[in-house]
Amino acid sequence: MLKQESSLRNIQSSIGKTFAIIPLSPNHWTILSLLVALAAGIMISFGELFLGLFLFALAGLLDLVDGAVARARNQVSKLGGFIDGVADRFVEAIFLFSFMFYTLPEIFIDAKIWLASVIFLGTCMPSFVRAYADHKEVIEKSKALALGGLCERSERLLILILGLFAGIVFSMDFFVYSLIIASVLSAVTIFQRLLQISQR
Question: What pLDDT sits at residue 10?
């Protein structure tokens, strides 16, 4: 585990040093990732799924660059972290909203309901539960930040991206099933965080 974390830090350090040469601030990289995600959303809404998936993957890579550049230049700030976190939510929302304009197969219920479910249960609620617990001083800030769960943002996005890839290659049913799985696991995550908060 420690070796994996060390390797990840080394990779991030290398990325930071490489991209720090380019005259863009960490916040510029964050905005760039948001613009690429917007382009990806437009591509998906027009039915260009493979190009949209590629652009969203690129947006994800650019999201890694901003933090790596900030560390390489010693420009890490609370404001930068805040902007990065807000941009992350917008990128995920753009990804999901773009499918509102694409015809998806109906599985159990309309796929748009599954999309809305992931947006609410996945993108919004886990972060809200953590922030609101801290805001209301139900638990200490450090404990709020440590709240985990079965399906956090990285796991949720991995499920959706793999589902979309399988959907492009085989059938879009796989993507809708990934939405269902992400919704269910996100609901479990919310329950886990509420349980953790009640036990503090």
Answer: 63
Copy the structure tokens of residue 148: 């985990």
Question: How many C-beta atoms lie closer than 10 Å to residue 154's C-beta?
Answer: 9
Residue 180 above 90 pLDDT? yes
Per-residue burial over 88-103, b = 16 or more CB atoms within 10 Å of its CB, e = otherwise: beebbbbbbbbbeebe
Domain map (residue ranges) of the chain: 1-102, 104-200
Dist CA 46 CA 101 (whole Å): 8
Contacts of the segment 59-62: beta carbons below 8 A, 24+ positions apart = 59/33, 59/34, 59/91, 60/33, 60/91, 60/157, 62/29, 62/32, 62/33, 62/36
The CATH H-level (homologous superfamily) assignment of domain 1-102 is CDP-alcohol phosphotransferase transmembrane (TM) domain (1.20.120.1760)
CA 34, CA 143: separation in Å to the nearest integer?
30
Give residue 166's pLDDT: 94
Which residue type occupies 40? A
Residues pairing with 107 in the sheet: 109
Model pLDDT for residues 49-72, shown as the tens digit of each residue: 999 999 998 888 888 788 788 888
Q: Tell me the whole-structure pTM to 2 decimals.
A: 0.83
